[in-house]
Amino acid sequence: MEKLKYALFTGCTAKQSTPEQMMSTMAVANKLGIELVELTEASCCGASHLQDYDDFLSLVLNARNIAYAEKHGLTMVTICNTCQLNTAMTKHRLDNNEELKAKVNEKLAEVGLEYKGTSPVTHFLYAIIDDFGLDKLKEMVVTPLSQFNIAPFYGCHNIRPSELQNETHKSAENPYNPTSLDDLIIACGGMNVDYDEKNKCCGFHAELQSPHTAAALTGNAIAGAMDNNADWMVTPCPLCHLKLDTQADHASEAIGREVELPVLHMQQMVGLALGCTPAELGLKHHVTKVDFV
Amino acid sequence: MSTEHKITTQNVNFKVFRFNADEDYLPYYEDYNMEVTSEEVVLDILNRIKWDHDGSFSYRRSCRHGICGACAIKVNGRSTLACKESMNDMIDLFGNELTIEPLSKKRAIKDMIIDKADFWDKHAAVQPYLVAEIDEAPTSENLVSPEEENALDDADLCIQCGACHYACPAVEHNEDFFGPAAFAAAYRFSADVRDHSETRLADVNEEKQGVWDCVKCFECAEACPKEINPIGKITKLHQMAFQEGIAKNNVAVRHAVGFKKSIVKNGVLDEGGLVLYSEGPAIVKHIPVALKMFSKGKIVPPWGITKSENLDEIKKLVKSSSTAKF
Q1: In principle, which of A69, A281, B68, B266 could form an S-S bond with A76, CB 3.0–4.6 Å?
Q2: Chain B contacts of A285, Cβ < 8 Å?
Q3: Would you kindly state where each structural domain of chain B is located, as residue ranges?
Q4: Domain check: are A118 and A174 in the same one?
């Protein structure tokens, strides 16, 4: 197989509140022989909030990010569900509306850039599943996670709206019964835990304005995983990770029971199975201690 | 017919939610095993349960044409209009073990029938009608151009089935939250050129019940049988608040605006700066979590942020492409 190469849109959290996500992404890519060219010019995607204020500005900024991936002639890979949503949504809208695309390109031309629509945008989870392949990953596992019950937490913006995700990813996901993360757990040798909240919302985007709703959703998710005997949770989204990892106290308060579970980034789980060290995966950066390694 | 259409059958086990609020202390699930043909929709199964198995089984149904909105229920957690949803599609999605439940288990009255009062109250609260000065003796038609009609963005197709409302986690946890269907209705009338309501947009922007508490999970977009995309209407109501100059200076609004402030300064987000700008002095409540995060190397100070390369491009684009003011 030809070496896989992508343009990496890190998003903002990987460089700030989830440094372990950046470390584990690079460690796993290295093990798998995937080359990631970091888009250091990229801006914030607007995190599904900027468009509430200024939709056109959000489109222009996201189109600029994609334009840099296009300059490299590479597929863009994201490592955050919300970056994935905003970027893929921008791409969808521009690729299906010539007039809008022309308006955006008029702005991008001011800085010598053009959005062409030539680079697909995918999440690293789907790059591993669709492009690298789980069979190949399985063969590379050196430390199977066989003693662990692992609860997948999918994160809304990788599975909804399904219309967008189906157009973006080869392995079309049923948002009511997603399988990608379960398949990844199994490929790493772990036992996948089924529970009602695995495809539900973590509450992240309403944390500031609606703290009770946000904390209750986080609490329900952790409680659902705990009640189904999960040893830990795994997520492809750093925003879900922030909620589940750092907000267990608020979550417990909101649902009236103590809940807490270690939560790994999808990359950290794969990294463990591939024999990366805890230091390489940044496990010390978790608020809820990862005590099983 | 030129193409041969073959009817197939499959064996399906249905786990059906049963509850009678007058008699039962708790709900329970009854199993029904049936041969299901490829021609059937979910409503056919509800009918067969009632007609062939248990005459007391209760559900709402009326038009059977996907327009009255009465028969919305959940199959394996997925909101659906029973009369519109093909059984074949359900089996393709979920296999041969299907769970049939009402839209909201906690609002169940009898089997699939729920108390939808909260839905109707919230719907009524957004002025779901045109507020306009009507000339009682018009001399010409009150024409709406195709472009003006397009602005409704299909919001007028809503059949008030409640599928999105009871799929919404914010509705579940915040009893004041109007919910996606009410917001879609608010948008439908606020976007109508003939409408002159002076209160609707402000009402749906209130902290307690308003659009800002949307958790952005896209459950409503997924649930809507009419593909109205309610969250898209919520986004438009946000934008209208800025356009009309009624966006309040509160944490939710500053949170949306704060992204632009951060982007123009750093390209990337300044996470701490965003929370500080959004919360103002109320940021103190985040200190306990922030300290824990700091001790784990999860907080980067403003001076430690790696700014985007070619930041001048971003600054230029923010200047030339901004369309909203706060």
Answers
A1: A69
A2: 296-298
A3: 10-114, 117-131+145-243, 251-321
A4: no
